[in-house]
Amino acid sequence: MFGIDFIQDLAVIFLAAGAAGWICQRLGLSAVAGYLIAGMLVGPRTLLWPLVANPDEIGALAQIGLVFLMFSIGLRLSVRRLRGLGGLLFLATGCTALMMFCLSRLLGAAMGWNGTESLFLAGMLMVSSSAVISKVLHDTGVTHERAGQLALGMTVLEDIVAVVMLALLNTVVELGEGMGRAASVGHTLAALGAFVALTGVIGLLLVPWLLRRLSLSASDELRTLVVAGLVFALALLARQAGFSLALGAFLLGVIVAETTHRAGVERAFEGMRDVFCALFFTAVGMQIDLHALGSEAGLIAGVAAFTLVARPLAAATGLSLVGARPHDALRAGLSVAPVGEFSFIIAQLGVGAGVVPEKFYPLAVGVSLLTTLAAPVLTRRAEKIAAAAGAQQPEWLRGWLQFYRRGLERASRRRRENRLWQLCRRRFVQIGVEILAVTGLLVFSEQIFAMVQPWLGRGRFFSYGPEVVFWAVLSLLLLAPLLAIWRNCSALALLYAQTATAGRPREAVLRPAIETGIKAIVAAGMVVWLASVLPLEGSGKWLLPAGVIAGVAALVVWRRKLIYWHSELEVELRDVLGSGQKKGTATSAPWLESSEEWDLTMADCQLADLTACAGRSIHELGLRVRFGCTVVGIERQGFAMALPPPETLLYPRDKVLIMGTPEQVAAGKKFLGAPTDSAAGGTFEDVHIETMKMPAWSAAAGRTLGELEAAKSFGVQVAGVRRGGVRILSPGAGERLQAGDDLLVLGAPKQLREFEAWLKAEPAGGGAAAN
To answer: What CATH number corresponds to the domain at position 663?
Structure first.
């Protein structure tokens, strides 16, 4: 039967990936390593016998895993979170990436590789594995220390570096070697920025509105289907724009992360993401020739050793340049040594396009495995290594670094106190975003027209009617941001003119001259910018006449409306960016200064589904009395509670942040992770309702429902009492039970049986009359 072999392949892959991933987790490794090993063992290039009959079909299906992987990475980001990381960490991450890029290119040249091979090697080693690093930091208990937070911030920002690198490498794949490749890097970066800005603005306006409507009028499964469709649609749009599928999925994840629906979407896609991501990594493993892995062992070991030295040094240097303490910088650098998922994606891109040899597959996997194995050791010994390096630091270097940090602190303080910069900063951001959005509309206008042309038809209205209508509408859409750019630049010109001439002689003459000069420069710059991005070929030749007509009409008739619409658009975007939930503000602690002198640490643990502490309050658990540690935060379904009160109940899947000494925290985590011994719980389908006759000898006779405490003692609820033909529904706690009453009881079958046995139990002396 058609498809049976394919189903058999999926069964083999998932079982092998599950077994190998479980073994790796038991050994303290990432499950990704297990997926790769499983692919090598069952794939067509195994040393034993291949168990997968259709590897090409599995590889095609693995692209879905790539899309969901990038979507989930985007969900971990948001504009708010990136802004909270601070501009200095952006600069440190950029410096680290640049240093790794240069060092990796030098390594490739030293090995005799050509420019493209060296470029792909740099892409593989520039970005760390956020999945491996977060797990290692969590397991070693340094997530909430200063160095751990620096490492987490860097690995988050390196995801953005990876997306940019993917876009550039995709251009290299399409153009190949030659002068055109170098010349296209600037164009690719500009097009990437324009595509991101255009997609971000439209997505932030439409996606939150759509999710809000779906949450009110559609079930969870329909919302999941719509979001999945959006993921694939935006991935395809990115591909049509000349970028990779990964970029579109990543951008939608970032957009959804800005909404209040992020937690629900993440839960809905959790299982789907795990399944398809495992399939993707297993498919990567299937591409690896174990013979090649053995023959390239020397190369893999050498590149891994280079990575374990170069990445920590580059990260420590980048962090030191932005003012971090050398001790913390080196500890953070040692934590970001492992590479992972993006290395596989970059290797797959290069090998699949035939621009790099197939040895890049085993190279990426081998380096990832070795750096992942070394990551826990480096993180645990980071304190000792940093202390030893600090002890060997020359006195002149220590003094220079202290002077440098004090200079950075003074410059940062002056920038915060600079009134002019505070007034201008937001306008600069608005101008930049609007320039990128307009550039995106113009650069990708031909692709947009190709998408809407079937709806407009051919020859409708009049000859070339669809082209004229499309470009007229596009011109109207462009007028609002263009007018806003000019108004913002005019305001900046006025502000700078007033600041430059304040208190000077002939201020009344100089101020309008400087303001007019700045406006003239801005106008000339806008003309040059628009001339460089205007589409003047194909249907774009209709833009100029349609734009002039639409622009004159709009400025004459709708100038105030355009200003109002743009203001409404800015308000809507600010509302969207300001209404998203703050993910993990309790369990993602602020960057803490070193607290080693207090011997305190913080660690988080996620409660399992069968945890014994489910439904119990913090006070009942008594962590402080038992172990000396304290619960300082709870994250539940994306919402964070800082310093929860003692009566707060804990539930399965809660992420709990506890603080204490390392020994106290370890004991508390072990206690919270203990499984339950009972089978309590279940679903609504387990709740039954039964009628029970209370005999004359019952221990409940003559007692009130409040005294009985049936819910606390047996886990059941008395929903009604029937006495002498009279029904009492939802009786209160003061209702006194009498012999012969019929009780309507709610509960699970086991609890109902236990309550009924107690209710009808005969006294110890026996002799009770039968009921």
So the answer is: 3.30.70.1450
